[in-house]
Design a protein that fits this description.
7-stranded mixed beta sheet, about 475 residues, globular, Kynureninase, Aspartate Aminotransferase, domain 2, 4-stranded antiparallel beta sheet, pyridoxal phosphate, Aspartate Aminotransferase, domain 1, PyrdxlP-dep_Trfase_small, 15 helices, 2 domains, pyridoxal phosphate binding
Length: about 475
């Protein structure tokens, strides 16, 4: 794909429009970008729902045989086509050989997750031995905090965003209470400045500098789930370490979305789910990371037999031979069917690189931003015209795939109209739609179609309001 090469996105689109003899907002531009997209073949690896198969769709206003406009990979990624094949293989193996499947086949059940952990490590920028696939995200967060959060009278605080994902907030509060402490004193919530939607890196750093001597753990999202803000993880990590804090990240919205270099950044620990941008299916197997520098010094508080080294695990002598680092945190054998679905997705990621995906993502999301601002900016000459604001940072280095759109009209009505027309997107109270063009399978034409349908949804909402 042709790159920006120092041009602004507007200049880039104007250049293409000039070549095509059309406006920058014409569908021809989207089709041109798709034609020259070097990653367009990856869409063929996924099953894209048809409009007629989405439950809220109104087939009287839309063609049911079209692909749906699926822009909700930040909530649940699409199904890779090989998932069913891999799951069928394991069901067939179970049917034919029963218990022997634990040590036979392409993914023996006794170490199935180990068959794909190297692929996962590449996506998060880690060494294979620093990553484990296990449990769910919040379970892993609890296990990690049990080891890394060791409060003292002087150093007892945990720093998180004020609007962290609720599960993270609950986990942190309960970990503080588990130590006999009061979240009112030991939970430090960071919130944006008054009148702003996102956190400034300078404010995060100044808080760490000011409060650092009392902070035990800094825990941020990689990408903030509501605003779509991509945090400066290496800078936050460096600042935290300078003050003697452990630094961890919930990478649920960052993994498979942003370029991660957890090892090189020196992040102490991280965890993530795999059903969003990693496309492993609802409730898919989660991941966790502990930097190799902690492999023998930070140990699990809770033990299970899957944390025992594989070579001696089946001696069953009740003498723990603990795997170093994150692998020692494994409690039980992993569900092989969840391994299958994650493997299918990781193999698609392995056909490209996060750098290439990120390059497309910047252009894809930038194109969405350009069209939104062109069509739906506030019009001072028409105060009754609905308008859309983008609360996600415009700086591409401060965001991933997602744009969070705020509306001047009631959000529920707009969302309902979009769903009627075959759009799958995510609504979050009080007034935001989260739109995520995913570079693995979304096209520029998906973005163009969404923006066009959004206009129809706003028009329908306006007409109903005026009646």
């Amino acid at each position: 794909m042709e790159t920006l090469n120092g041009r602004s996105l507007g200049e880039f689109l104007e250049h293409i429009a000039l070549e095509l003899g059309c406006s920058t907002t014409a569908q021809d531009v989207a089709l041109h970008l798709d034609k020259h997209d070097e990653l367009r073949h990856l869409r063929e690896q996924f099953l894209v729902p048809k409009v007629k198969d989405l439950p809220p769709t109104d087939l009287s206003v839309v063609d049911g045989d079209e692909d749906s406009i699926y822009l909700v990979g930040n909530s649940l990624g699409l199904q890779p086509k090989t998932v069913k094949k891999y799951i069928d293989e394991e069901l067939d193996k179970w049917a034919k050989m029963g218990v022997h499947g634990h040590f036979e086949g392409s993914r023996p059940w006794a170490c199935a997750e180990d068959c794909v952990v190297e692929l996962m490590a590449r996506v998060v920028g880690a060494k294979t031995e620093e990553v484990s696939l296990m449990n769910g995200l919040t379970v892993n967060l609890h296990l990690l905090l049990l080891s890394f959060y060791k409060p003292t009278p002087q150093r007892h605080k945990i720093v998180i965003e004020e609007k962290a994902f609720p599960s993270d907030h609950y986990a942190v509060e309960s970990q503080i209470r588990l130590r006999g402490l009061d979240p009112q004193h030991s939970l430090l919530l960071m919130k944006p400045r008054e009148g702003e939607e996102t956190l400034r890196t300078e404010d995060i750093l100044s808080t760490i500098e000011r409060e650092g001597d009392s902070i035990a753990v800094i825990l941020f999202s990689g990408v903030q789930y509501y605003t779509g803000q991509l945090f400066d993880m290496p800078t936050i990590t460096k600042a935290g370490h300078k003050k003697g804090c452990f630094v961890g990240f919930d990478c649920a919205h960052a993994v498979g979305n942003a370029e991660l270099y957890l090892h090189d950044w020196g992040v102490d620990f991280a965890c993530w789910c795999t059903y969003k941008y990693m496309n492993s299916g609802a409730g898919g197997l989660a991941g966790a990371f502990i930097h190799e520098k902690h492999a023998y010094t930070v140990k699990p508080t809770l033990l299970g037999w899957w944390g025992h080294k594989l070579k001696t695990r089946f001696l069953m002598n009740n003498e723990m031979d603990l795997s170093p680092g994150i692998n020692g945190y494994r409690l039980s054998n992993q569900p092989v069917l969840l391994v299958c679905s994650l493997q299918a997705s990781l193999e698609v990621f392995n056909l490209t690189s996060m750098k290439a995906l990120r390059r497309k993502s910047v252009l894809l999301t930038g194109y969405l931003e350009y069209l939104i601002k062109h069509h739906y900016a506030q019009d001072e000459t028409d105060p009754d015209k609905p308008y859309v604001s983008i609360i996600t940072p415009s700086n591409t280095e401060e965001r991933g795939c997602q744009l969070s759109l705020s509306f001047s009209v009631p959000i529920r009505a707009v969302h309902k109209e979009l769903e009627k027309r075959g759009v799958a997107c995510d609504m979050r109270e009080p007034n935001v739609l989260r739109i995520a063009p995913v570079p693995l399978y979304n096209s520029f034409n998906d973005v163009y179609r969404f923006v066009r349908v959004l206009g129809l949804a706003l028009l329908a909402n306006r007409s109903r309001s005026s009646q």
